[in-house]
Every structure is written in structure tokens, then in C-alpha cells.
Amino acid sequence: MSNRTSLFSNLKGDFAAGLVVFLIAVPLCLGIALASGAPLFSGIVSGVIGGIIVGFLSGSQLSVSGPAAGLTAIVLSGITELGAFDIFLCSVIIAGAIQLILGFIRAGSIANYFPSNVIEGMLTAIGIIIIMKQIPHALGYDKDAEGDMAFAEASGSNTFSSILETLNYLEPAAIVITLVSMGILILWGKIPALAKLKMLPGALVAVIAGVLINEMLIMSGSSWALAQSHLVSLPVASSFSEFIGQFITPDFRGLLNPQVWILGGTIAVVASIETLLCIEATDKLDPLKRYSSTNQELKAQGVGNLLSGFLGGLPMTSVIVRSSANINAGGRSRLATVIHGLLLLVCVALIPVILNKIPFATLAAILILTGYKLAKPAIFKHMWHNGKYQFVPFIVTVVAVVLTDLLVGVGLGLIVSILAILRGNLKSPYFFKRKEFSSGDIIHIHLSQEVSFLNKAAIKSALDNIPENSYVIIDAGNTMYIDHDVLQLLKEFKEIKAEQKNIQFDLVGFKSEYRIDNTLESFVSTDNVGGELEMMRTHKEFLVGETAKVK
């Protein structure tokens, strides 16, 4: 199947998905800007460029880019250290340039080394985080800014304590809006009477319902009505010139500051890793099972961050929350991402007052259902049935990402996955069969298809435990590759330890390229079975008058 899809092949579905992602992106862009200590409008700038420019250039059909929660700590400390946001923008430009270079030198291929169980764990953890982070918003406690995905929150609380604190700040209107919104999202398109309206996104209907409920409470003078602190809060420009004035240009004197370059490099590395992780995760969610060009994605991100730096935006990455929402809403091509960026630009410029009536509670309902689709119980069951070498790295990644952050969690998951691979290699480089006789044992060791240096310890242990006066046959008839270290180990065993323990040692099926030197003439055998039978005959003293016990 082609990795590229025609831009207008799914116009209705992509428009609906773009609209849903736009609704989610507005508070996320603002919340990340707030958490980063940057002007609120900088988050919108990054979202617009991530949607329109990066969306058009992207190597992925479904990825949505914008300001990333994973960069908030770096951005906050960078702005604080440099003392001015316009100087910080030079670091964003440098990061974009570095990403462009990474794309051209094909550094995106590193994504091929991310294990699928770790990517699955990351996706599941993101789903859990989305649900936990949105529970307070769904109940009317909006202390933590939208877009904050870290376990430790800026207020000093953490994800778990914030949920407990919410019980002291319940807002009845928010709860009602959340329940109504979730009901609409779940039932929309499933009720026959609403079938004719199925092209209208359920998320838009839920948002409209949430706005209308709160507006009715305001007009009735009810004490339940939600205050502005519980609603989206975009900066409102009174004129076109004031809107244009919100764009900030970089102070290029910052390029003379070494700290700016160090910060730019840090942003480039972290943003690139997060992007590659999200691209791999998005490809796993793609119902059409397409593969994205990671090098093209790095180039697109580089262009996006260059423009974002020049226009006063935050650094961006591919973002899994928006990307998964795009897929769940029916997005199938890059058009959905571009539409979300265009809507973000037009609506922020023309109707910010209307957008500022949207309750966080109705957006929380959309995100909670998105999170549930990423972290269904069926996913845990599926990974469990895949075996412990898949499940353990998966569950470690889930727990680590939830309790730390994306990069730390994935890093721990990778370490555990590598350890699992090492353990698997140590346990299965060969098939061992042993027959016991009173005059000695006959031991057959059949090597696996590939024997790497990782298997050296297991093979060494097996050889060291061979009893004295045994007859050992090592069969490489089905082996395609043997590491030099393992060959050297076999040579040393035959020349030293085998003689010391009176072990008769033969090698069967070893190809000529495996010969270390002339001391192992029996490495070459053209007839594996015949060679083994011949050796059995030459050592028939093991068999005379004995009954074998096979282990």
C-alpha cells in the first residue's frame, strides 16, 4: 500500500477530524504556553505553523504538530536563564536548523530501533495520563493548565493529589456539561434518528451543547454558571494591527550568546526524539497501516521550528494527543492537520470571543474518550498474551511514563527491553540433549540460527558444566552466523578444558568460513548427519551394554 494518500481523497472525514483537533488544540496551545512561561499567543503561533506548514510538508499522513508538553521545562528554564523571550526565540531558530540537518543526514532512521512493546507502552501511558489529567477539568477544578502532561505539577501537586483535591472544588455545571458531552460523543452516529447528521462531528455538537448549557445558566443568573476561569481564555485583539502586534520577532543579538546555542541544541535533540517516538506511535494507530518517512518528518519539523522562531512561536514536535484525536475523529490524510491549522489561525483572528465561551469540561470529555481508546483494558490483555518478554518492557514503560515523563519513561522501557532481549539470547542460543551412560555422557548441542557475542556467556556456562569423560557433539548445521568470540571460545575449550576433563569433542556442520585456524580441522563437514553417525561409531564404547537416559 502506498504511504501517500491524495490530499482530497477523504475531504469530509478530514474536515471533520481537523475541526475536532482544532477544538482540542486551542486550550492545549494556551496551556503549554502558560506552563512554559511564554506569552499565550506564542502557543497559538506554534500550533498554526505546526498545522499548516509542518502538516503540508510532513512525512506522516496523520501526525499533528504543535507546542509540546515535553518541552515546557526546557522552555521555562531557557526563558528564565536568558532573561527575555525574544532572545529565547534564537534558540528555536537554531533548533530548527539542526533538525533540518538531521533530516538531510537521514538521522530519522533511529526510529527503526524503537521496540514495538515500548511504543505500545508509551501510547497506553499517554492514554492513562490524558484521562487522569482531564478528570479535574471534567469536574470543574481547573488549577492545572491544559496541556500539562508531567506527573509533578508546577503548583507542587502531582497527578494523583490533584484528582483528590478536585473533590473539594466540584462544580455542578462542569459535571453536567461533562456528562452531557460524553453522552453525545458516545451516542452520536449510533442513534438511527441522527444518521442523517453523522457527517457533523460529534465533538462539535458536544462543544456547542456545553456552550449553550453554560450560557443558559448565565442568563438565568444561576450560581452554577461557570466563571471565565473554567472557560477557554484566548487573547482578544480589538483591531487587526493589535492582532499583528502579538507576533514577537527574535532579538538576533542572542546568536552571540553561547547559552542560546546550547539551548538550541538541547531543544533540537529532545524535540527530534519526541517527534520520532510520536511518528512511530501514530503509524501504529493508522488504520491504513502506512509507514511515515522519518527523515522527511525531521525536515518538516526543522522548517516549522525555523518559522516559529522567526514569528514568535514556541518550539514544536509531533504530538501524540492531537495525532490520536485526529485518527479517532476519522482523519486519513495530511489535509486534516492543515485544516486544523487554518481553523486555528482564522478563528483566533476573527472570533476569539466566541471561542472563549467553550468550557474546559466539554473539551475534557473529548480527551477522556480519546485517552480511553489509547488505554483500553484489551491492550493489556493483548500484551500479556504476547509473553513476558513483550509484557514486562510494556508495563514498565506504562508505569514509568505515567510517573515521570515521556522521555524518561521510554528510556526506562528501552533499557528493560534490551535486558529482556539479552536474557532471551542468553537462554536460547542452542538446543541441548544429553544421554547418560555409566562410561560417560553423550551430549548434543545444536546451535541456533544466529549465535552472537550475546550468546557467549550461555554457551560458556553450558561447556563448563559438561561432566568429565563425556562425548560432546556441537552441531552448526542450521546456523547461518557465528560470532568470532564464540568460535574462539570453542577453540579454547577443545584445546584446553576438553583435554583436562577427558572430554571427546567434535564439531559438525561448521562452514569453512567459520575456521579460526588449522587447529580445528573438524569445523568443516559437508554431511551433518553422516558425520555425526560416524563419530557415534568411533565412540561406540559409550554404547556397549548400556541403556541411555535422555535429558
Summary of the model, kept short:
The protein is α/β, with parallel strands linked by helices.
Layout of secondary structure:
Blueprint: H1 11-35, H2 40-57, E1 65-67, H3 72-82, H4 85-104, H5 116-139, H6 159-166, H7 172-187, H8 202-219, H9 240-244, H10 258-285, H11 294-311, E2 316-318, H12 320-328, H13 334-350, H14 352-355, H15 360-374, H16 377-385, H17 388-403, H18 406-427, E3 430-437, E4 440-447, E5 450-451, H19 456-464, E6 471-475, E7 481-482, H20 484-500, E8 504-508, H21 528-538, E9 549-550
Parallel strand pairs: 4-6, 5-7, 6-8
Antiparallel strand pairs: 1-2, 3-4, 3-9
Describe the structure using short key phrases.
551 residues, alpha/beta, Transcription Regulator spoIIAA, 2 domains, 58% helix, disordered C terminus
Overview of this structure, please?
The chain is an alpha/beta fold. It folds into 2 domains: 11-403, no CATH class; 428-550, Transcription Regulator spoIIAA (2-Layer Sandwich), CATH 3.30.750.24. Helices cover 58% and strands 7% of the residues. The protein contains 21 helices and 9 strands. It has helices at 11-35, 40-57, 72-82, 85-104, 116-139, 159-166, 172-187, 202-219, 240-244, 258-285, 294-311, 320-328, 334-350, 352-355, 360-374, 377-385, 388-403, 406-427, 456-464, 484-500, 528-538, and strands at residues 65-67, 316-318, 430-437, 440-447, 450-451, 471-475, 481-482, 504-508, 549-550. The strands form 3 sheets. Strands 8-6-4-3-9 form a 5-stranded mixed beta sheet. Strand 3 and strand 4 form a beta hairpin. Helix 2 packs antiparallel against helix 11 and helix 2 (40-57) runs antiparallel to helix 13. The chain is elongated, with a radius of gyration of 31 Å. The relative contact order is 0.16.
